[in-house]
Amino acid sequence: MPTVAPLDLQGHVVAAHFLGDIPFFATAAGTIHRLDSGEKVTEAHQGLLTCIRDPFSPTLITGGEDGKVFRIGKDGAATLVAEAPRKWISVVAGGPQNAVAYAHGKSSFVRQNDGSLKEFPESRSIEGLAFAAKGLRIAAARYNGVSLHWVGTNAPPVDLEWKGAHTGVTFSPDGRFLVTMMQENALHGWKLDGKPGENRHMRMTGYPAKVKSLSWSPKGKWLASSGAPAAIVWPFSSKDGPMGKAPLELGTRANIMVTQVAFHPAEEVLAIGFIDGMILGVRIADQKEALLRRPGNGAITGLSWSASGKLLAFSSEAGDCGVVDISA
After folding, report:
1. Which of 70, 168, 211, 233 could pair with 78 in a Cys bridge, judged by C-beta atoms 3.0 to 4.6 Å apart?
2. How distant is the alpha carbon of residue 31 from its chain centre?
């Protein structure tokens, strides 16, 4: 079994991420802990609500109950990106050209590298944000669908409608698909490169619980999801994505729910975190499983691979965190 370097923190830990080969752990209290020649701490928020790794830069982006948005560097330095007094910032996204998006209430905001701020009002509260891989285009998930905005123009948004509450959103790496998590224990997808008038909807249903974690495989062939007693992995390699195809079910454990999924940065290997703190690694090709961590004190709340793919950081709602060395 791989070696595990434990890190016990106080209280709920919201997320675990790597910047290069340095692991970071973000607590609900608002502190950011990193293991860099010993444990170092950054005091970021008075109550942290979200912490993501910016897919476009080697930084983290955080939002908190104090209405602040920070960018956290590899050295732990916190740079204030935006502030909205008396608002809770629970939705953030990182984009191309150092753009940062955040939302509160019925508006999303994009702060660009030059400091300019653009607001995109919606008819309903925004629950998720994501940037497309190319061009400054942002998706805002809301009740009854998603709005797509080009940040640099005043063009009207493209509205993708589907009834129900959409609680998170992600673009496929190649930009051909958009997928949302839903309150109704389902995923919903749209094919973005279809001809006008085509039925572009993709319904991915049958989950016993809400999906709260999604991860694309390195080349976008697969989309892994939590919300079941196995990682549900949908095929996206064909031109119509998962339409008409059954998903893979990886790491099945009777009645023990998957809470986090994270694909390896280079290989089709999936890390799966469970509600009882256990972590499995599963290879897509032959579905072979490897135990990476035995059950712990709390549900896994974060999983992240290092840039080299040799280390896996994990966090839990009970504060027992750590790093798994799979090369050991």
Report:
1. 70
2. 19
- Please state the pTM of the whole predicted model: 0.96
Q: Which two tokens stand for residue 192?
A: 């973005």
Token pair for residue 18? 């790597």
Contact 76, 32 (CB under 8 A): yes
Residues in the chain: 328
Q: Which two tokens stand for residue 60?
A: 């983290």
DSSP state of 97: G
C-alpha–C-alpha distance, residues 145 and 162, integer Å: 5
**CB hemisphere CA count around 190 (13 angstroms):** 23
Answer whether 61's CB lies under 8 Å from 45's CB: no
The one-letter code for the residue type at 167 is T
What burial letters (b/e) apply to 52-62, b meaning 16+ CB within 10 Å?
bbbebbebbbb
pLDDT digits (tens, 9 = 90+) for 85-94: 999 999 999 9
Cα-Cα end-to-end distance for the chain: 8
Q: Over the stretch 208-240, which tens digit does the pLDDT of each residue have?
A: 999 999 999 999 999 999 999 999 999 999 988
- Which residue segments constitute the domains of the chain, with CATH numbers given? 90-204 (2.130.10.10)
User: How far are the Cα atoms of 20, 35, 155 from residue 6, in angstroms, in the given order?
Assistant: 19, 11, 50
The two structure tokens encoding residue 273 = 């975190």
**CA-to-CA distance for 130 and 95, rounded, in angstroms?**
8
Using a 10 angstrom Cβ sphere, with 0-12 exposed, 13-18 middle and 19 or more buried, the burial of residue 154 is exposed
